Amino acid sequence: MNGKNRSNIKAGLKVNIVLKQDQRSGKLTQGIVKDLLTNSATHPHGIKVRLTSGEVGRVQEIL
Question: What is the pTM of this model?
Answer without folding.
Answer: 0.91
